[in-house]
Amino acid sequence: MLDGQVAIVTGGGSGIGRATALELAGHGATVVICGRRQEPLDETGALEPHGRIAGITCDIREEDQVDALVDEVLARHGRINILVNNAGGQFLSPAEDITPKGFRTVVRLNLEGTWLMTHAVATKAFIPSGNGGRVVSVTLTPHTGLAGMAHSSAARAGVENLMKVLAIEWARFGIKLSAVAPGVVATETFMTKYPAAFRDHYTESVLAGELVTPEQVAQTIAFVVSPAGRAISGSVINVDHGHDVSQVRYPPREIATERGSIEQEARRT
Ligand SMILES: CCC/C=C/C(=O)SCCNC(=O)CCNC(=O)[C@H](O)C(C)(C)COP(=O)([O-])OP(=O)([O-])OC[C@H]1O[C@@H](n2cnc3c(N)ncnc32)[C@H](O)[C@@H]1OP(=O)([O-])[O-]
Ligand SMILES: NC(=O)C1=CN([C@@H]2O[C@H](COP(=O)(O)OP(=O)(O)OC[C@H]3O[C@@H](n4cnc5c(N)ncnc54)[C@H](OP(=O)(O)O)[C@@H]3O)[C@@H](O)[C@H]2O)C=CC1
Question: Quick one: signal sequence residues (predicted)?
Fold first, then answer.
């Protein structure tokens, strides 16, 4: 499906980024992954049997490192067809306790890092090639705001709007940009980084009774960047078992019947 395509996946050393790199490579793409540490990148590369994944260290917040990464990929492969902006994250905190530096840190990683990568790949590869390209940025649900993550919720809303405005401006270059918004994904980071009570609450109370897997997000991204996804641009695609519409099981315990349903109203004659 992706034979001959060259992709960059940021944050490809773990979780969703690793699953995405493996998925794209499995469809024939040559994939360059980046992250701040070399070791996890090498571990992902070792999981791919055909040598289609290589890692280059890059902090997506640093303009010079982003430029160097894109130049290196072009020097090695001569083109870039796909960019997956997956690197990101945040710390959990009540909004009133987030310091200016903490807020800036999270916005810089998720919004500015995504902008730097997208702008560099578009201006150095997609636009000069005349062939356009595909961009998918990983954001999150719920879109109504994720309590405890004010900085990240704001940044991801910015990323989704950025994808939309660039989908308008760069349609004339054949560049398609979208966001894929996962719900709660059972990655190692999600299972280990946050306080146990927060993690357990989400694990136990999500609407569908199950978390999203990294592979489910990866497969959606692969579809969007595949020939079948050619008409997708300016879209936000949730991969979340309905987490965007409800963050708790239905029906609420207080109104649940013994059947696990709700009571039907009596007909009035
Ligand atoms: C339902 C769940 C949905 C979502 C799930 C996921 O996304 S799972 C996947 C999630 N994956 C990831 O999140 C992976 C990527 N995430 C990361 O690398 C970090 O979490 C990062 C985003 C904070 C950046 O880190 P970095 O190395 O660039 O930064 P740094 O360490 O040097 O800190 C800079 C400043 O930030 C502040 N601050 C930081 N931590 C805390 C805190 N606990 N408490 C309070 N504040 C905190 C503080 O101001 C600090 O400055 P200080 O006070 O030190 O002068
Ligand atoms: N897990 C979940 O429940 C959800 C996750 N998401 C989002 O999906 C994405 C992936 O999440 P997940 O796989 O769980 O998390 P991980 O923590 O496993 O992945 C984050 C990756 O980003 C890399 N990274 C972090 N900072 C930078 C940076 N400044 N420059 C380059 N690379 C960086 C990390 O590598 P290194 O540390 O080596 O730099 C790491 O490989 C994130 O944006 C996350 O917020 C969205 C919704 C839910």
Answer: none
- ipTM of model: 0.99
189-234 per-position pLDDT tens digit = 999 999 999 999 999 999 999 999 999 999 999 999 999 999 999 9
DSSP 168-186: HHTGGGTEEEEEEEE-SB-
Instruction: Give the nearest ligand 2 atom to 217 CA.
Output: 8
For 268, phi then psi, to 5°, come to -100, 135
Predicted structure pTM score: 0.98
Architecture in CATH of 6-255: 3-Layer(aba) Sandwich (3.40)
Radius of gyration of the chain (CA): 20
d(CA 152, CA 93): 11
Considering only CA atoms, which residue is closest to atom 45 of ligand 2? 89
Question: CA 102: distance to chain centroid?
Answer: 21
123-155: per-residue pLDDT in tens? 999 999 999 999 999 999 999 999 999 999 999
Domain residue ranges of the chain, discontinuous segments joined by +: 6-255
SS3 category, 228: helix
Distances (CA, A) of 252 to 50, 180, 188, 247, 261: 49, 29, 30, 11, 9
Q: Whose CA is nearest to atom 6 of ligand 2?
A: 140
Question: Using CA positions, which residue lies closest to atom 30 of ligand 2?
Answer: 59
> Residues 195, 152: contact at Cβ < 8 Å?
no
